[in-house]
Amino acid sequence: MRLDLLYFAWVRERMGRAHETVELPAGVTDVAGLIDWLAARDEAGAAALADRGRLRAAVDQAFVAIDASIVGAREVALFPPVTGG
Amino acid sequence: MRLDLLYFAWVRERMGRAHETVELPAGVTDVAGLIDWLAARDEAGAAALADRGRLRAAVDQAFVAIDASIVGAREVALFPPVTGG
Amino acid sequence: MIRIRVTPEAIDIAAEMALAEATAGAGAVATFTGLVRADDGVGTLELEHYPGATEAALERVAAQAVARWSLGAATIVHRVGPMAPGARIVFVAAAAPHRAAALDACAYLIDRLKTDAPFWKRETRDGEARWVEARETDDAAASRWE
Amino acid sequence: MIRIRVTPEAIDIAAEMALAEATAGAGAVATFTGLVRADDGVGTLELEHYPGATEAALERVAAQAVARWSLGAATIVHRVGPMAPGARIVFVAAAAPHRAAALDACAYLIDRLKTDAPFWKRETRDGEARWVEARETDDAAASRWE
After folding, report:
1. DSSP string across C70-114
2. Which of A9, A39, B2, C107 has the most CB atoms less than 10 A away?
3. Nearest CB to A82: which of D89, D118, D122?
């Protein structure tokens, strides 16, 4: 499955990129699985995604819980808790 | 006792004046007594002060209850409930 | 900083905001603006007040808000005299380091002003003038701060 | 009327107020402005956001407020990019016929924005940049509206 990934704030900095398009392995079906896969992929992923408690996600631009499905999604974003306003 | 009286809004209109200085009779010692005396004094006073439930007062510029003392006061104001803001 | 103005002039919100924002520690400014409603048939609104007593009452309300919420600034500007539909009648602002204090203090300023300051509104509709009646909900709103 | 802006430009409060005030039935406008505090050692603040998702989130928050309090107008303007101490980060406004609705809706807009919109703050102090941590009090403030 082809998926656009976006990273923000310190997740972006540690990933070393703001976005990428990936070809997901068949077993990755939710946000938590995506995070596991990215963390195992390379050192940048391991560093950016180590602190699971401080990671938040959006699927197709809607905030979701970490166990949310990504089946059929076009875009997933990973980022720290928001701090606007 | 010499006392400055101020009237506002429809109390002012019905009294036909915005202020006056009066010489109070000795028995008038509180706001309620002042209102009774003014209402008995002339027709304008009777008309302006008939609706006691809708009258409010200030003694020396501080809002007070209708039974508040006016002994030693320099200025008493009579007016309807306030409607600012 | 407490800023009280009772004025026949139009209220300049940009200027008032700049003053409130410039106070020490301001990270949050909450404001309330009351307007002459443009769509309910009022031709003009006229505001009468009790000179001296009005300013003193507004000072007291502002000082209470500053003390209760440790504000950097409390502003109350109230227009008096005749004004047209759409005009600003009143503007209040509360500046504080954080938003909860600014928001609560702003509500306090306008709620207390409604019951504690000697202003009277007279509106003209279809050529006929009438004094606006006080609303019981204003007393209820003011008393929730006690 | 819902007005959402996410912009690198300075926030013009006079212009935003005029738009909110001009909506049908406006007798009351409540606003909240968040500022870069000028006195706590921050050199610059930088706001990052998630283009598209941010605007959609702000639209949702504003639409919920309009529906819940029957607002004439809900405005959310949020600045992004680098900004200096004293600058306005965010401005929200709620216009309604009466003040209780305007005040509550204004608090709702800023409380929900803090938790529901994808913005991230990075501040620079003494030449060192750090990402601002989210505050638990923000979640508490947002959840009181549920």
Report:
1. T-SEEEEEEE-EEE-TT-EEEEEEEEESSHHHHHHHHHHHHHHHH
2. C107
3. D118
Which CATH number belongs to the domain containing residue B41 in this structure? 3.10.20.30
Q: B37: domain range?
A: 2-79
- Alpha-carbon distances of C31 from B5, C35, C103, D32, D72, rounded to whole Å: 36, 13, 8, 6, 17
ipTM: 0.94
B29/B17 Cα distance (integer angstroms) = 23
Q: pLDDT tens across D22-52, in order? A: 998 899 999 999 999 877 778 899 999 999 9
Q: Is B75 on the interface with C (CB under 8 A)?
A: no
State the chains in contact with B (3 or more Cβ–Cβ pairs under 8 Å): C
CB contact under 8 A, D102 and C38: no
Q: Mark yes or no for CB contact B84/C122 under 8 Å.
A: no
Q: Rounded to two decimals, what is the model's pTM?
A: 0.95
Give chains near A: 3+ CB pairs under 8 A: D
Question: What six digits make up the tokens of C60?
Answer: 């007291």
pLDDT digits over B59-79, tens only? 999 999 999 999 999 999 999
- Chain D residues contacting A via beta carbons under 8 Å: 34, 47-50, 52-53, 56-57, 78, 89-90, 110, 113-122, 131-134
Q: Is B33 touching C (CB cutoff 8 A)?
A: no
Q: What is the pLDDT of residues D96-126, one digit of tens each?
A: 999 999 999 999 999 999 999 999 999 998 8
Which CATH code, of 3.30.70.580, 3.90.1170.40, 2.60.40.10, 3.90.1150.10, is assigned to C2-143?
3.90.1170.40
Tell me how many domains chain A contains.
1
With an 8 Å Cβ cutoff, is A82 touching chain D?
A: yes
